[in-house]
């Protein structure tokens, strides 16, 4: 009877009782649903890869990367987009197939490029001519051929928070379409002995809901392709259209299927290529958030509850800004439930505060809840993307553990940090001993 009652009232995620998870692994705790990740990957396979010929999908690992995640992505047959030596190192340690890695970044170091070339990654997306020069030196030294794309900034402004917008003209990412910068680098790459220029890449931004920005970018890119064909007899073979597909966080977010974006991309590409008499290149997409965002929840234990009469009630949790900087950075909004009171009527509005010495450390400004007591468990929803991967140790808070859940079972995939981990790399110089 007691167990039946618990099952009814506690918040379940991937068949697991989240209150039990909090007890077993402690809080704060990142919880990730394996089935949800696989479901998203399979939608990409069914509605994009199998529907349209000559297509590939890579998971943008910056959204959430662990060794276990690499294994799931590999099993689902997707590639991996990495953006740093650290992300590549993780993929290498997970034995991820290197030919399925796409290496990005707007300021890759010599060491990172060297590492990528030595490991034989499938593509390097070159962001600027400085990088192109380094890549030429490295491939000449190692005598290894590397397939590259150039990242361009298509001059298209999607609708999202300005900090996660990337495809506009005024952006640090990519080579501008204006001027002859592109012509110069294409000439250089096509004359290079070890570089094989496959085509171009753009990424418009993140948490986008409208296909129109992608359509505009395809128009800009196909015009570039035509220009390069006419002026340099260079034929683009591959177009990487980035990620950015939006997900549900709160009321008002209207997420779309992957096909909503990819059908539009493919259709526009075919129309433009036909009219410009250019062969249709292969197409790569690289979603991050769309795959992992809704697959994660974060569990916290509620501590202090402070009511300021006629102002608001602050409910503080044992994590906050260090495990989820998104509300502070982008004013990101989240939904949440009191996991141990999931079925109780929500008759009040509270503010969920983190435990950092930072006024801006507020996870949710207005959350409808039942009566709250210290010791209750808060589950913040849709925290799979850019939470664990953006976590810090601010205020020397140890990073939470990550648990993978599936059909009622749970596995620890990242251990909780200990206090010892926080000072592991500190050194006291002799004169201070
Ligand atoms: C080059 C590139 N590709 C893919 C992504 C993935 O973006 P999202 O997680 O919004 O799909 C990003 C991040 O915005 C990116 O910078
Ligand atoms: N970190 C951002 C997404 C940026 C993706 C990288 N270009 C977010 O949390 O929404």
UniProtKB/TrEMBL annotation:
Keyword Coiled coil belongs to the record: yes
InterPro entries listed in its UniProt record: Ala_racemase/Decarboxylase_C (IPR009006), DAP_deCOOHase_LysA (IPR002986), De-COase2_N (IPR022644), Orn/DAP/Arg_de-COase (IPR000183), PLP-binding_barrel (IPR029066)
Cofactor(s) of this protein: pyridoxal 5'-phosphate
Keyword Lyase: yes
Gene Ontology terms: biological process: lysine biosynthetic process via diaminopimelate
Name of this chain's protein: Diaminopimelate decarboxylase
Taxonomic source organism: Alkaliphilus peptidifermentans DSM 18978
Active site as annotated: 357
Assembly notes: Homodimer.
Family label: Belongs to the Orn/Lys/Arg decarboxylase class-II family. LysA subfamily.
Functional summary from the UniProt entry: Specifically catalyzes the decarboxylation of meso-diaminopimelate (meso-DAP) to L-lysine.
Binding-site residues for pyridoxal 5'-phosphate, renumbered to this chain: 244, 286-289, 386
UniProt keywords, alphabetically: Amino-acid biosynthesis, Coiled coil, Decarboxylase, Lyase, Lysine biosynthesis, Pyridoxal phosphate
Enzyme nomenclature, EC number: 4.1.1.20
Enzyme class of the recorded protein, top EC level: lyase
Alphabetized NCBIfam families for the sequence: lysA (TIGR01048)
Occurrences of domain Orn/DAP/Arg decarboxylase 2 N-terminal (ranges): 36-292
């Amino acid at each position: 009877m007691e167990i039946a009652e618990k099952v009814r009232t506690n918040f379940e995620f991937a068949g697991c009782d989240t209150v039990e998870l909090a007890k077993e692994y402690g809080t704060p705790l990142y919880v990730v649903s394996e089935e949800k990740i696989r479901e998203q990957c399979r939608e990409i396979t069914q509605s994009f890869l199998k529907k349209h010929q000559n297509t590939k999908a890579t998971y943008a690992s910056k959204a959430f990367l662990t060794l276990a995640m690499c294994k799931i992505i590999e099993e689902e047959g997707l590639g991996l987009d990495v953006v740093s030596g650290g992300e590549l190192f993780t993929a290498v340690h997970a034995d991820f197939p290197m030919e399925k890695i796409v290496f990005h970044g707007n300021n890759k170091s010599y060491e990172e490029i060297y590492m990528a070339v030595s490991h034989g990654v499938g593509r390097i997306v070159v962001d600027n001519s400085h990088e192109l020069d380094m890549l030429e030196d490295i491939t000449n030294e190692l005598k290894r051929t590397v397939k590259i794309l150039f990242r361009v900034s298509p001059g298209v402004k999607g609708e999202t928070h300005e900090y996660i917008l990337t495809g506009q003209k005024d952006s640090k990412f990519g080579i501008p379409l204006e001027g002859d910068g592109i012509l110069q680098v294409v000439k250089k790459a096509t004359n290079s002995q070890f570089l094989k220029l496959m085509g171009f890449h753009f990424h418009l931004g993140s948490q986008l809901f409208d296909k129109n920005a992608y359509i505009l970018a395809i128009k800009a890119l196909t015009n570039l392709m035509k220009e390069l064909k006419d002026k340099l007899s260079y034929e683009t073979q591959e177009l990487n259209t980035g990620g950015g597909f939006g997900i549900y966080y709160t009321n008002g977010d209207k997420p779309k299927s992957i096909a909503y974006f990819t059908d539009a991309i493919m259709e526009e590409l075919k129309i433009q290529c036909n009219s410009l008499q250019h062969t249709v290149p292969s197409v790569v997409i690289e979603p991050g958030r769309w795959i992992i965002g809704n697959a994660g929840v974060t569990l916290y234990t509620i501590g202090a509850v402070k009511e300021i009469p006629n102002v608001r009630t602050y409910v503080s949790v044992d994590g906050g800004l260090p495990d989820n900087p998104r509300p502070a950075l982008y004013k990101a909004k989240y939904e949440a439930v009191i996991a141990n009171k999931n079925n109780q009527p929500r008759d009040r509005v509270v503010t969920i505060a983190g435990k950092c010495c930072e006024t801006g450390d507020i996870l949710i400004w207005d959350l409808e809840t039942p009566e709250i007591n210290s010791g209750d468990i808060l589950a913040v929803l849709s925290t799979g993307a850019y939470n664990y991967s953006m976590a810090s140790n601010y205020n020397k808070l140890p990073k939470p553990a990550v648990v993978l859940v599936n059909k009622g079972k749970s596995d620890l995939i990242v251990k909780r940090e200990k206090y010892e981990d926080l000072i592991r790399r500190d050194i006291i110089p002799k004169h201070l001993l």
